[in-house]
Amino acid sequence: MGTQATERADAARNRRAVLDATERLLAEGGGEHVSLDRVAALAGVGKGTVFRRFGNRAGLLRALLEERSRALREGIESGPPPLGPGAPARERLHAFLDGLGAIAEGNAVLLSAHEQACAEDKYDDPSYRFWHRHLRALFAEERPDLDAGFLAHAVLAVFDGELIRRVTPPGDPRRFTRSVQRMAAAMLGQDDHRDPPPGT
């Protein structure tokens, strides 16, 4: 039992070191700077350890993005409204886009790298599938006459790292999120001009 606990602790420590190294390399040189060799060297683990745990560069970036968005996912599934269950679909949509927009605005470099690495199987990516399923359900609840699946894809298509950096001026860090919220509201038939929640 003690040996198994030690192995689990070592695995968790190695995983943390690998993700921290990936994050550091992203900050230093963008997605092109991330490779299994560089991550392993910076994390102080063998390349085989990185490969067995994450598979490839796309797996590294996918794991880091999933970690950054875990709190939002948990809030959607079991948190209080309006993000969690119990609020009207339109309010949940507004809250969800506020949360996803904040993640995207704070991680534009990671988002760009993830998009490039996972381009061939973008629509099968676990995070994308979860966001799409949630958006589709909200659109379908609010406007069953519309093609909810297509609208969900259309909204997620604008979550592009390069676009976010281009449209976000230094003095207005939430411009992207507000614009996406209004776009989604317009899709539902009503432009939403509400101000973002305080502190966002």
TrEMBL record:
<dbReference type="InterPro" id="IPR001647">
    <property type="entry name" value="HTH_TetR"/>
</dbReference>
<dbReference type="Pfam" id="PF00440">
    <property type="entry name" value="TetR_N"/>
</dbReference>
<dbReference type="InterPro" id="IPR050109">
    <property type="entry name" value="HTH-type_TetR-like_transc_reg"/>
</dbReference>
<feature type="domain" description="HTH tetR-type">
    <location>
        <begin position="12"/>
        <end position="72"/>
    </location>
</feature>
<dbReference type="InterPro" id="IPR036271">
    <property type="entry name" value="Tet_transcr_reg_TetR-rel_C_sf"/>
</dbReference>
<dbReference type="GO" id="GO:0000976">
    <property type="term" value="F:transcription cis-regulatory region binding"/>
</dbReference>
<dbReference type="GO" id="GO:0003700">
    <property type="term" value="F:DNA-binding transcription factor activity"/>
</dbReference>
<keyword id="KW-0238">DNA-binding</keyword>
<dbReference type="InterPro" id="IPR009057">
    <property type="entry name" value="Homeodomain-like_sf"/>
</dbReference>
<feature type="DNA-binding region" description="H-T-H motif">
    <location>
        <begin position="35"/>
        <end position="54"/>
    </location>
</feature>
<protein>
    <submittedName>
        <fullName>TetR/AcrR family transcriptional regulator</fullName>
    </submittedName>
</protein>
